[in-house]
Fold this sequence. Notes:
Layout: E1 15-19, E2 23-28, E3 32-38, E4 41-44, E5 52-56, H1 58-61, E6 71-74, E7 77-78, E8 81-82, H2 85-99, E9 109-114, H3 120-132, E10 137-142, H4 143-150, E11 161-166, E12 171-177, E13 180-187, H5 191-206, E14 208-209, H6 212-222, E15 234-241, E16 247-253, H7 254-260, H8 262-278, H9 281-290, E17 292-295, H10 304-312, E18 316-318, H11 325-335, H12 337-343, E19 344-345
Parallel strand pairs: 1-9, 9-10, 11-17, 17-18
Antiparallel strand pairs: 1-2, 2-3, 4-5, 4-6, 7-8, 10-19, 11-12, 12-13, 14-15, 15-16
Amino acid sequence: MNFFSSFHSLFSNDLAIDLGTANTLVYVRGKGIVLSEPSVVAVRMDDRYKDKILAVGAEAKRTLGRTPGNIRAIRPLKDGVIADFEVTEAMLKYFIQKVHNRRNFVRPRIVIAVPSGITQVESRAVKESAQSAGAREVFLIEEPMAAAIGAGLPITEPICNMVVDIGGGTTEVAVISLAGIVYSRSIRVAGDKMDRAIAQYIKRKYNLLIGERTAEAIKTMIGNAYPSPESIETIEVKGRDLVSGIPKILAIDSEEVRVAISEQIEAIVETVKIALEQTPPELAADIVDRGIVLTGGGALLKNLDKLLREETNLPITVCDDPLSTVALGTGMALDSIEILRDVVIR
């Protein structure tokens, strides 16, 4: 395949991108991960002018829920796939220019990690967005495969590697052997749905309206997947009282957060169990010894590994840096033509 071998690689600006619902990470060949920012874009909506991009990434995320009427903070990816084509393109263009110090003439080759359940239409949208943003060539790799590579698993060997990647929009469960995905299942239940569930719970129980950034902060700070009465944590929550309309503060504890997100946690556990049922017996025997690897931001949820260990009776390992695993794996595929040739989605 001649497109894999290019003299450009010698002084290359090639990139690997983990285009996530919550965060986008960019890996530059030879430098590693150089950018990690929220997948958020602030846009000014004007009748007279075309929608104007005001801020991207961390700067735009600070505006979530705080914008005047004519400015919107948009998250262009929903459930792991592109929901707003133009905004995604603008965001990618911004990130590419940022890592290449605004040199517009650079046309990199880009490897992008996408959910394993992605349709042809959705994968075409990702490719077109990246090409419009300035990519010379675009290759796609499935997120669980990228996560397995990033976690250092021996994906090319004839042994079973089971990965559970819990991101912002999707949870991916995959069984990998001989550089191929033997079984994969992608559900659109992950971090974002947990945030919404926390906001709904607080609204229902306390008549308090909170924003998505607050809900995310609650999950990150005291979220818990496993009941532990001996170590209950509390956090102060600020929001608007729906009865009086006045801002107020209340304290909620980790047990309430666990109850709020229990439906999402159950869906993830159920998906893991279905994957185990569908795994061929020879590979299932490997899982007993090697266990399951957790990656993605959701892997940081307290005691999720403990809950899965109890539900499956298998060894569960959380990656060293779950947030960067997919980006690292995508970057490693970019660095190695042999790996990329094996795992790229045709």
